[in-house]
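Reopening this ticket.

The earlier resolution said the output was attached, but the attachment link was broken on my side. Pasting everything inline this time so it's all in one place.
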Amino acid sequence: MDQQKMLIRLLLAVAFVAALIVGGVVWYREQYQPTSLVSPQTRQFTFGTLKVACDVRNNKVYCEDSVVEGADAATFQIVGDQYAKDKNRVWFAHFKNGLILYEVEGADAATFQNLGGFYAKDKNKAMYPYYEAADLGPGGNYLTKEITGSDVKTFQAVGGCYAKDRRSVWCDGLQLEGADVKTFQVVGDYCYAKDRRSVWCDGLQLEGADVKTFQVVGGGYSKDKNRVWVRAAELPLADVNTFQAVGDCYAKDRRSVWCDGLQLKGADAATFQIVGDQYAKDKNRVWAGNFELPLADANTFQAVGAGYSKD
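Inline output:
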């Protein structure tokens, strides 16, 4: 792995020197091969969460080295993480086997705002990119459309998958029935939220949750005085008093251990511990996620980085 990294760096250095000779620059995108040489006068843009670069060359806009048809090179810009616009048009950016820009039909580019959480609005309407599957076969499109019934003047994203206006609350662009706008708030991560009466995760109500004692404990887990949940699913065998999150996917109580809500059979809760970023072990066993590594020696096992481990 180290030799491969050194080779990549060497190739990049050679390409960079060659670029200087011909008066250009080199881009290297984290998950792709080096791109073509471009003029130092080009403008560069990056969709933050997608880690994908766009640039302007010869009065045309390129994303992933493909021309963005109809884009105005002089005014093209990235708007937050998932949207782009020029003086005339707005696009929603999605990555699926390469970057795809879906034009937002009817959006007013001059007043368009990216609100976060995929939500957006202009002077006329609030919007969300709804996925519409293809009628036949694989595929489909993201169509950023008006959020029906929303009040554009007071509409705002409030964190995670949620948004609200003066009358209603939405999750992933769908109205959250029964939510109290005045007391609604996002709680922790994984799209947990609550108001004065109810608790939700990903827009699904947690039946029987006690609002006053509800808390997010991390890793997609939550609990109140009576119950434990992983996302929106209850863990009926978990002990509320001793339940705690351990790392990204793991949690345990005094008796048991879970990963992503799946109980690790035979795990010893007292000696269970995280090893590196991707592994865990107890006094007898080793796991990668929720998969046991039956040949690993728990006493000598260690993570060495970049997904590798040894015993």
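Reporter confirms the inline version is readable. The two ends are 19 Å apart (CA to CA). The mean pLDDT is 85.
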